[in-house]
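Researcher: Next entry in the queue.
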Amino acid sequence: MINVIVELSKYVILTLMVIYTFHCFYLVKQQSEEERNESLRQQLMLIFFMDFTAFLVIYLKTGKFQVVLFYIEMMAFFAGIQILYRIFYKKASILLLNNMCMLLSVGFIMLCRLDVSTATRQLVIVAGVNVVALIVPVLIRKMKFLKDLTWVYAGIGIVLLAAVFVLAKTSYGAKLSLMGIQPSEAIKITFVFFMAALLRKGADFSKVVQATVVAGLHVGILVLSRDLGSAVIFFAAYLVMIYVASRNVGYLALGLAGGSAGAVVAYHLFGHVRQRVTAWKDPMAVYQNEGYQIVQSLFAIGTGGWFGMGLCQGSPEKIPVVKNDFIFSAICEELGGIFAICLILVCMSFFLMIVNIALKIKKPFYKLIALGLGTEYAFQVFLTIGGATKFIPMTGVTLPLVSYGGSSVACTVLMLAIIQGLYILREDEDEEIERYRRKGTAQRVEEAPEAQSPGDF
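Model: Structure for this entry, 457 residues:
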């Protein structure tokens, strides 16, 4: 009986995910307020039923009461964050909030299936950082001096990265963390704020040079620390923000050429880079060593097929570091390729929402922040999924909100809180424009000469 429930559940979960994904893009269309609110409520119901089905299956297969406790705690967290945002931020983007809850749900399902204690630690971190993140949107609205801290952001980033390079121990071939914290995740935010503050009044040659020097220091230290994934993310954000601020294709071309040359130099200088490229080119040839991870990842993806094997029916634990770097492979194995494609589309919807917010913001500082954070998010998703599927060499970064990792999930939640603040700012700008428009219309009506009746002639 349990096996029948497991087999049916994967189709139920897949159907709910497909409908949710459709809603993500359907909500982009212009709708009435009532229709939009109804669609957002339906999204919440889809998340609820997906979580209920998944955790029921995990409990039936494992028999662990901790799964039930975790499910109750997780649903309490989701209910709390939804209610609090609606109370404190009437203008917040509920679609952005729903997408965050959906991606967290997928992560919690897979982490709980792999290890309940790991999922519990992730939930505690997520709940704690969301309490802090609740004040971020109001800080973005009120703290006007953020645009004046240009070199403070640069100094914080360079000092913290240098400290990691000097003091951190090597883990999985790279220097990543100090005292269990990965500073590069937080520096993604400070780096974007530095670039936005520097380029907010334009991108003349001197400012481009300054931005390039600071970005080069960030990326260079990360490369020396062998944190290649983060280095690529920083470089991508730098290129996009320079191009948007200057609108100069030449800068973009020079940046791409410099990045390509830097990649070649890194390949010849660092054995760690050569190992990853070798594993990417022909993982079966080095299956016992460098290629083991990627081969197991490809086996998992192939085994899952389109519809997956069902929760607790696969063997994702055979993939090394599956909870961090290769959780996408575990999702493909047990929930299927169609579910994984929907997950990618939800992430794409996330990115498009951020770009839409950036395009509508009038103030350059906030516009650049939105574009920079959106670029970092999109590239992190690309690097994680690309590495797991052998589309690109493995870079060792996590899938935002889905993979296990305290620093990663905490900084992603804070990043989304900043985006919420920018969305609210955009709503404020729209209201202000509408207010001025109405005021101007009323003033023109008052100043217009009174219409003369026929008796006046």
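Model: DSSP finds 17 helices and two strands in the chain.
Researcher: Noted, moving on.
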